[in-house]
Amino acid sequence: MSGAYNSDDKILVAIDCIIFGFDKESLKILLIKRDFEPQKGHWSLMGGFLKKNETLDQAANRTLLSLTGVQDIYMEQLYAFSEVDRDPVERTLSVSYYALINIEDHNEKLTKKYNAQWFDIADAPSLIFDHDLMLQKAIRRLRRRTAIKPVGFDLLPEKFTMRQLQKLYEAILDKEVDKRNFINKINSLDILIKLNEKDMTSSTKGSFLYKFSQEKYDDKLKNNFYIKL
Amino acid sequence: MSGAYNSDDKILVAIDCIIFGFDKESLKILLIKRDFEPQKGHWSLMGGFLKKNETLDQAANRTLLSLTGVQDIYMEQLYAFSEVDRDPVERTLSVSYYALINIEDHNEKLTKKYNAQWFDIADAPSLIFDHDLMLQKAIRRLRRRTAIKPVGFDLLPEKFTMRQLQKLYEAILDKEVDKRNFINKINSLDILIKLNEKDMTSSTKGSFLYKFSQEKYDDKLKNNFYIKL
DNA sequence: TCAAAAGTGTTGCGTTTACACCCATGT
DNA sequence: ACATGGGTGTAAACGCAACACTTTTGA
């Protein structure tokens, strides 16, 4: 029974990427207008097919690179979607990934060269196939991840202010947090480096810039590190 | 480019199930001696192949039923493993699932009719392919799940004592907890029903039996329910 | 009467939350 | 001078962790 390697049951394996970005106020996802049938012209996640000689992680990175020109960003496998008729053309299994990117670093290429577009997660259009499901699952996962890993930093520029970080967490968790409590919490984690520079664009007084310290974080990892807001 | 539905890249999709059980003292997994090549005779997770006309969930349930006679148990998709050479015979993607079953309810069938065997997770043999990896991931996931869902009850008989529940949590989390604190915690969750029966097998005094209340739990779900030990 | 497991509360400590005012600067 | 966002500390409430003795009953 289970010993059968039966070629009849071979199927296509797709990968679809939920790409999160952040632009000072809200959490966004990157979508493209699908340029082939079926559902040509509808909004879709970035997707592609797994090739025979690559892993899923490789396929996800390759797809992302080819569709957006972006590479070396945080990506994580999410879930395998397998409804028999999820793709009307052909039986396809899709493994979804989610990725976090810093919009500023990549924006021009994305929206010009490729016809991709950022949408606020609150008002994203409805997506093809089961992509809405994938998106919902990705958001839940991202929310949970923030409690375990300092994952948000991938969504910010290298240097950022406390307020930006706070806004990011508020956007991800979809709730407001008290500014003093937030700063106390983050400082107690001791994973940031306070720079001697200020960002003068947001206020007359200017606000200090910070950056994430991988070294400090690695130290903390040994002792059950977690962030809870 | 990504529009290509290219048949050359069709591959087999396997599913492998990590089946957890609990026998009063320790957390166990169910393994079988593989009865076909490659690696015939080595210990393996329960596995099978996805058929063209079924979902992964269905395939996982079908496989479990056919290999163990067990059905209607808690199962959850874990992760898709995709190393190109993970199966030496043929390019295969494997989506792993983990399941929780109550050993007492199913034991005879499992170990007699099928040549399956329970192993303490602490001294399981090494497994074929990437199954050890799958097992590690499943254990981590199960540990984390206990904090979010009262998932452990699937591993116990319908009626159980507080001490059994405590031992289960200790086995899953691999740490000892204080009995009074544990009971206080569980009681404060208010998801159990205390029965007017005692289990007289474990002591002369006897200990009260409890059962899980789905209704109470569903009520709690509305307000960010979680268990932390 | 003794052995073995069941059952039961309190206190201290640390973490989380709520909350309000002054500061620096450009206009 | 004033408007705007930046920056700072404290007190109360709560949740978690540590801790020891009495009860029951079969052997």
Summarize the structure in words.
The structure is a homodimer of 229-residue chains. Chain A is of the alpha+beta class and 229 residues long. The first copy, chain A, folds into two domains: 10-145, Nucleoside Triphosphate Pyrophosphohydrolase, CATH 3.90.79.10; 157-221, Arc Repressor Mutant, subunit A (Orthogonal Bundle). Chain A is 30% helix and 27% strand. The first copy, chain A, has six helices and ten strands. Chain A has helices at 56-68, 103-112, 131-145, 162-173, 179-189, 214-221, and strands at 12-22, 27-33, 43-44, 46-49, 74-81, 92-100, 116-120, 160-161, 192-199, 207-212. In chain A, strands 1, 2, 3, 4, 5, 6 and 7 form a seven-stranded mixed beta sheet that branches. A three-stranded antiparallel beta sheet of chain A has the order 8-10-9. In chain A, β1 (12-22) and β2 form a beta hairpin. The N and C termini of chain A lie far apart (50 Å). The mean pLDDT of chain A is 93. At the A-B interface, β4, α1 and β5 of A face β4, α1 and β5 of B. The first copy, chain A, binds a DNA duplex (27 and 27 nucleotides) through α5. Chains A, B: It comes from Polaribacter pacificus. Chains A, B: Residues 10-141 form the Nudix hydrolase domain. Chains A, B: This is DNA mismatch repair protein MutT.
